[in-house]
């Protein structure tokens, strides 16, 4: 039987702050790898942040994400 280490992440993301959110994601990937994780699970909407609501109707939201 092969065992895998899984890292779960609960990031402090900001709505529509793509640069900061990306940095947080990259840092969590680095930390997961350092901990020996093979799989990293991130939160829903971790790139765009939570609470985008009406921003999903804007064309550039999809482009940035």
From TrEMBL:
Keywords: Hydrolase, Ligase. One of its GO terms (biological process) is NAD+ biosynthetic process. GO terms for molecular function: glutaminase activity; NAD+ synthase (glutamine-hydrolyzing) activity. InterPro entries: C-N_Hydrolase, C-N_Hydrolase_sf, NAD_synthase. It comes from the Eukaryota. Residues 4-65 form the CN hydrolase domain. PANTHER family: GLUTAMINE-DEPENDENT NAD(+) SYNTHETASE, NH 3 /GLUTAMINE-DEPENDENT NAD + SYNTHETASE. The lineage of its organism: Eukaryota, Viridiplantae, Streptophyta, Embryophyta, Tracheophyta. The keyword Membrane does not apply. GO terms for cellular component: cytoplasm. This is NAD(+) synthase [glutamine-hydrolyzing]. PROSITE patterns: CN_HYDROLASE (PS50263). Pfam families: CN_hydrolase. The keyword Hydrolase applies.
């Amino acid at each position: 039987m092969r065992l895998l280490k899984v890292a779960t992440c609960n990031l402090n993301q900001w709505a529509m702050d793509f640069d900061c959110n990306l940095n947080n994601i990259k840092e969590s990937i680095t930390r997961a790898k350092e901990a020996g994780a093979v799989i990293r699970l991130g939160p829903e909407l971790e790139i765009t942040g939570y609470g985008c609501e009406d921003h999903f109707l804007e064309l550039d939201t999809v482009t940035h994400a």
